[in-house]
Structure to design on (266 residues):
């Protein structure tokens, strides 16, 4: 594993830990040594074999909180992050990737709404509409949802938890979600939306840290805390794919959208 792949993996696991509710790690000597080694490597310095303080055995320092998100000297822009997502090889999904679904929309500041789905399932690249995020019919439904609460494309950024398209017969696993979710956390940090709408159980569990069924999450707001401490309300609701298969659930989703509209205007 080269340096870039290691940093990708490290960042992804930290992002996954954050999504599980882990806010920090005990700062024992092993963690301190690893962080110092990473910092020295980033500066191009050689790393000593023993970075313990003279006269103190490893692990005797008092524990203190360490941020679960690695400190970045220079923050990426959203376009630079998109370019990084396009060339990502952080898990096995990239080998079957037909298109990347880094996200689209937004542009107006402050961003009012961020919509997060699970992933784009495709048969083959020829069947994918340019710019598709959830699927052709699903994206049309999502656009109608946005229009129904009087928002425009510049007010809303739409993306997925998994940034690679997924073949029809494949199913992302927990490792894929864990590795890719760091990109989503960074997007939220960069865009700072006023509100997040998580569509489907994968995105909802990731952003609310709830394990309950989606039917027991939707209809109420949860709080997502960014790495820098900002708190953003999250409304879980049903995914357009589910609604196309279960049109009787559109009424419940309509109620969720009205709650979002009221929250944004409140």
């Amino acid at each position: 594993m080269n340096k870039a792949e290691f940093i990708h993996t490290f960042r992804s696991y930290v992002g996954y830990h954050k999504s599980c509710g882990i806010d920090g790690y005990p700062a024992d000597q092993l963690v301190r040594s690893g962080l110092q080694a990473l910092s020295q490597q980033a500066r191009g310095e050689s790393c000593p074999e023993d970075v313990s303080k003279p006269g103190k055995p490893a692990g005797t320092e008092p524990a203190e909180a360490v941020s679960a998100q690695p400190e970045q000297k220079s923050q990426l822009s959203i376009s630079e992050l998109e370019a990084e997502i396009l060339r990502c090889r952080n898990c096995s999904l990239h080998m079957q990737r037909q298109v990347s679904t880094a996200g689209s929309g937004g542009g107006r500041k402050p961003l009012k709404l961020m919509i997060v789905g699970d992933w784009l399932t495709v048969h083959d690249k020829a069947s994918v509409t340019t710019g598709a995020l959830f699927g052709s019919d699903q994206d049309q439904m999502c656009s109608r949802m946005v229009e129904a609460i009087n928002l425009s494309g510049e007010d809303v950024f739409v993306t997925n938890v998994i940034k690679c398209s997924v073949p029809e017969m494949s199913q992302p696993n927990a490792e894929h979600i864990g590795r890719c979710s760091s990109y989503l956390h960074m997007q939220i940090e960069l865009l700072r939306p006023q509100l997040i709408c998580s569509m489907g159980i994968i995105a909802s569990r990731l952003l609310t840290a709830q394990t309950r069924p989606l039917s027991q999450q939707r209809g109420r707001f949860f709080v997502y805390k960014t790495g820098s401490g900002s708190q953003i309300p999250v409304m879980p609701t049903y995914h357009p794919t589910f609604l196309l298969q279960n049109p009787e659930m559109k009424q419940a989703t309509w109620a969720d959208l009205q709650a979002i509209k009221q929250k944004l205007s409140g």
